[in-house]
Hints:
Layout: H1 2-31, H2 38-50, H3 54-66, H4 74-85, H5 90-101, H6 110-122, H7 128-138, H8 146-158, H9 162-174, H10 183-195, H11 199-211, H12 219-231, H13 237-245, H14 250-266
Helix pairs in contact: 2-3, 3-4, 3-5, 4-5, 5-6, 6-7, 7-8, 8-9, 9-10, 10-11, 11-12, 12-13, 12-14
Amino acid sequence: MKTSNQAVLIRVFALLFAFIIFVSFTAISVAGEKCGNFESILKTMLTEAKQGMTTSQFIVGKMYLQGKCIKKDYHKARRWLGKAVEKDHTDAIFYLALLFNDANSPYKDYTKAVHWFNRASELGESHAQYYLGEAYLYGRGVKKDKRKAQQLLAQAMSLKDPRAHYQIGYMYQKGVRTGRRNYSKAFGWYAKSALMGYNNAHFKLAEFYAYGLGVRRDKVKAYAWYTIADLHGHTTGNAKKEKLVKRLSSQNLAEAQGLIQRYMKSMEYSEYQ
C-alpha cells in the first residue's frame, strides 16, 4: 500500500513539473524574450516523453510544430503529437489538426484536419470552431457550405476569437452568401477583430481608410493602422506606410502618432498575430 501511494505521489509531482515547464515555455513564447536555457527544458521534456508521459509528449510535439526557440520539425511534431493523441489528449488532437491544416506541412491533408478539428471540438476545444468554420467557408477538406461556415464562425465569435470576426468581415467584403458586397458591415467586423489584436485586421482597416471602403477616406487613420500592422510584422504594412507618408504633413504625422498610441492602448492582446 505504501509503495502504491509513493507511486501516485511521484506521478502527481511529475505532472506538476510538466505543467510548470509548459507554462514557462508559453510565457517565453508570448513575451518574445530570449530562449535562455530552453535546450535543458527540451531535454527534460524529451526524457519524460520517452517515458510515456502524455503531457510531455504533447508539449514536445507542440514545440516542434511551432518552431519557437527550436527549429521547426514537422516529422518530430507528428511523431510526438501522435503519441499523445493515442491517449485522447485534447490539446494534442487540436495541434495535430493544425499540423494537417498547415499549408507548409509535408503532412498537409485538409480532410484529416477537419476530422481532428471535429474530434477536438467534441472534447471541448473551443478554438476548433474557427478552423471548422474556415474549412466550410473555403471548402477545405469538406464541401463548401457558406451557411454552416457562418454558423461555426458565429460560435467562435462568442468565444472571442478575433479571427472569426475577421472572417465574417471578409464574407461581407466579398459578398459571400448574399452575392452583394457590404463594405460598411465588413469594416465594422474588421474593426472588432483589430481591437482584439488580430494583425490581418489592422491591415484591413488601413486599406479601408486608404481607399474609402465602407468608411470615409482618411489618410491619417490609414497611416496609423498601416504602422500598427507593420509593428506587428505584417509583410506589406511597411511598404504601404512608406508610400503613404509622402502625402502627409508634419501635422498629419503628429496626429497619426496620437492615434497609434490610443489604438494600441485600447487593443486587447491576441495570440493570433
